[in-house]
Amino acid sequence: MSDHISASVADGVGHVTLDRPQALNALSYEMIRELAAIFELWRTDSEVGVVVLDGAGERGFCAGGDIRELYTYASNDDHAEARAFFRAEYRLDAMIARYSKPVVALMDGITMGGGIGLAGHASIRIVTERSRVAMPETRIGFTPDVGGSWLLAKAPGELGVHLALNSRTMDAADAMHAGFADSFVPSERLPHVIQALAERADPGSPAEIVMLFDETPGPSALALARDWVDACYSAPTVAEIIERLRAFADGRVTATTGGASSSSFPQHPLDPGATAYAAAAADELETLSPTALTVTLESVRRARTLRSLEDALEQEFRLVSWFIEQHDLREGIRAQVIDKDRNPRWNPSTLAEVEPGLATRVLDDARFEPVWPPA
Q1: CA nearest 219: which of 177, 188, 178?
Q2: pLDDT in tens, 81-139
Q3: Nearest CA to 256 among 238, 267, 241, 244?
Q4: Among 137, 135, 131, residue whose Cα is nearest residue 116
């Protein structure tokens, strides 16, 4: 058993905990392999009727993959090992999604990146008042993976594009509205949920048991922003998204939506919060990696056309296999995690300099062994 994974079986409940609280339970390659072994073992264990997945500590379920480990792979040109890491992680995510027994994921606290890969595809996904849910990859010159593009593609309207490009953090209400979670349970009641699952209280199914503790989290800011987010983030390119955000923030009557007249563009003269938020979103996009933004936009939009989570994971694998060899990923991790100067030097530095057709070329790149080799 890994020092960073704990697992137990009692009263029909398999309880597995990410136990690396000092690193916000970030996933190492070793942890991924251990989790896969546990889920494989419990698949046929008659003593396990339901699986509970949570994280140690009060700060978060899982902050994502181990970024420092990824940086080591990238800096040492150990690309083959990085691809092996991603293959193992994606297979685990898909295993949880297709698991034959209910998996109850407790997304208490920070749940981002690789944490979404584990919890976001579980059959029962619980958030709390402490939940902070995000796919923050563009902040490090990367792109949403672990099936994140699949979830983002299914979010209402253009909310998924907004969440992906801006790496926006969701609270419980936002996560439920965007389709990343199913139930809201106050954190103090989570132990009671686990106890009820073990006691098989009536009603008996895990989903019905969780519903006994489910509450309403309050209004979703994402839902309230839907009109202008749809209008701005439906633009065909990142540059045009930024222009629409500026137009909305400035209240310009010349703004257009998909070629339509300005009358169809949502105006909120009495909502300075919305216009300030749009301006801040545009400002943020102009600080992020032009390459990561361009590829991510195409990734989420193409994910809307895919048939399954596995197809989305294969698409993401082609992307991450390419990103691991690129300057911007190393530079983004350096600036945000290693040196923490928060001053990445992207290359290229502007959207105008991004190679035409780059996103399509990378998405179609099948040089490397896929996650699931053809039969």
Answers
A1: 177
A2: 999 999 999 999 999 999 999 999 999 999 999 999 999 999 999 999 999 999 999 99
A3: 244
A4: 135
- Cα–Cα distances (Å) from 81 to 84, 150, 194, 364, in that order, read 5, 25, 37, 22
Cβ atoms of 29 and 85 within 8 Å: the answer is: yes
Query: Which residues pair with residue 25 across a beta bridge?
Result: none
Of 338, 337, 269, 332, give the one whose Cα is nearest residue 296.
332
pLDDT given at position 255: 39
CA-to-CA distance for 70 and 14, rounded, in angstroms?
30
User: Is the CB of residue 317 less than 8 Å from the CB of residue 90?
Assistant: yes
Residue 97: the pLDDT is: 98
Tell me how crowded residue 127 is: count the other CB atoms within 10 A of its CB.
Answer: 31
Long-range contacts of 259-265 (CB under 8 A, 24+ apart): 264/231, 265/231
Exposure on the CB side of residue 108, measured as CA atoms within 13 A: 20
Q: Structure tokens of 158?
A: 């253009």
Q: Which pTM does this prediction carry? A: 0.94
Both tokens of 294, joined, read 């361009």
> Is the pLDDT reported for residue 269 higher than 70?
no
Model confidence band, residue 375 (pLDDT cutoffs 50, 70, 90):
confident
Percent of the chain with pLDDT over 70: 93
Please provide the DSSP assignment of 314-338 as one string: HHHHHHHHHHTTSHHHHHHHIIIII
Tokens of residue 22, six digits: 């000092």
Tokens at 3, concatenated = 């020092």
pLDDT band at 202 (very low <50, low <70, confident <90, very high): low
Q: Which residues are the active-site residues?
A: 65, 114, 137, 145
